[in-house]
């Protein structure tokens, strides 16, 4: 109910014809305002909900399968790999609309594989610490690669696009972008939602899962592939948006418990609400739009601090 109310309210919230909310009757009578609502705000609101739900759910998948409460696409380098893949297509001036998501997905998978392999190669510390360290290394590598692409990019056009990926935002989202974003994200969200009960089995360990009649390695790879594909899609069109995939799964488990039958739908809805509120704030709080990635990082850091101080999460670290 809260998500539905926020979506409807966001349609009427903006800076035209005046800052704040506009009445529905006035919006219908004003053709310019109605055009803004249908062709600017509505696709952006849909993208915000998809973005938040995707990052929240993929973060939950990563944390459940890897058995690590501190992993999310950004920490593992998946988001940075996707941004590097998108930046590479921009510098190479590839105009195909599908080039960005495919390149982003390819480098996201590469980043995840590198982080996983490096964590297994590290000889000290527990699995949580090793995975975090390897994720930091992989993130730094792809962030450096993205910096090199910025140096090579045309400062009059390409540099601005790459800067957008690094800061994140939904200002460039329209119906055309949604046409390519939805097929890479919504089917993944639906599949994970349908198969969410199997995440409970995978979280019990490989031996237990195998004794219950499933192939843990195969199913883990399938879930990780779907999570990486969806993450790459939203990053390629929305840029790097941090912290959603880290804090929302913890909030979902705090509200609904660790059973993925309940925590998965909770994460989907909560992620959509968080991203929508953040985007509404980014586009209305000042005359110039604030990059969405900055707001989610600020809010995420504050919320995560509260979770660390006041929640049972501390006992698992």
UniProtKB/TrEMBL annotation:
UniProt cross-references to Gene3D superfamilies, sorted A to Z: ABC transporter involved in vitamin B12 uptake, BtuC
Entry annotated with the keyword Membrane: yes
Compartments, record wording: Cell membrane
GO terms for MF: transmembrane transporter activity
Key words of the record: Cell membrane, Membrane, Transmembrane, Transmembrane helix, Transport
Pfam families, per the entry: FecCD
The UniProt record lists the keyword Coiled coil: no
Regions crossing the membrane: 41-62, 98-119, 131-153, 180-201, 222-248, 260-278, 290-310
InterPro entries: ABC_BtuC-like, ABC_transptr_permease_BtuC
Protein name: Iron ABC transporter permease
Species classification: Bacteria, Pseudomonadati, Spirochaetota, Spirochaetia, Spirochaetales
């Amino acid at each position: 109910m809260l998500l539905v109310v926020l979506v409807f309210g966001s349609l009427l919230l903006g800076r035209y014809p005046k800052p704040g909310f506009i009445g529905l009757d006035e919006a219908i009578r004003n053709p310019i305002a109605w055009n803004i609502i249908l062709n600017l705000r509505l696709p952006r609101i849909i993208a915000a909900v998809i973005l938040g739900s995707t990052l929240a759910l993929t973060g939950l998948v990563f944390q459940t399968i890897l058995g690590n409460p501190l992993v999310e696409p950004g920490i593992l380098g998946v988001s940075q790999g996707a941004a590097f893949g998108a930046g590479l297509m921009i510098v190479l001036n590839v105009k195909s609309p599908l080039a960005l998501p495919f390149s982003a997905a390819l480098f996201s998978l590469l980043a995840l594989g590198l982080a996983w392999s490096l964590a297994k190669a590290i000889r000290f510390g527990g699995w949580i610490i090793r995975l975090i360290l390897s994720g930091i290394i992989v993130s730094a590598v792809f962030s450096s690669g993205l910096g090199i692409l910025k140096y090579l990019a045309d400062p009059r056009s390409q540099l601005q696009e790459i800067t957008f990926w690094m800061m994140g935002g939904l200002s460039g989202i329209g119906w055309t972008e949604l046409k390519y974003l939805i097929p890479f994200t919504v089917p993944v969200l639906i599949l994970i939602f349908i198969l969410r009960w199997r995440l409970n089995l995978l979280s019990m360990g490989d031996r237990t899962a195998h004794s219950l009649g499933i192939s843990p390695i195969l199913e883990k790879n399938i879930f990780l592939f779907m999570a990486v594909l969806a993450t790459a899609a939203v990053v390629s069109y929305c840029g790097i948006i941090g912290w959603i995939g880290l804090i929302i799964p913890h909030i979902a488990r705090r509200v609904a418990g660790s059973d993925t039958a309940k925590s998965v739908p909770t994460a989907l809805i909560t992620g959509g609400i968080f991203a929508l509120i953040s985007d509404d704030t980014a586009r209305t709080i000042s005359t110039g739009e604030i990059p969405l990635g900055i707001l989610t990082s600020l809010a995420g850091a504050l919320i995560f601090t509260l979770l660390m101080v006041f929640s049972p999460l501390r006992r698992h670290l």
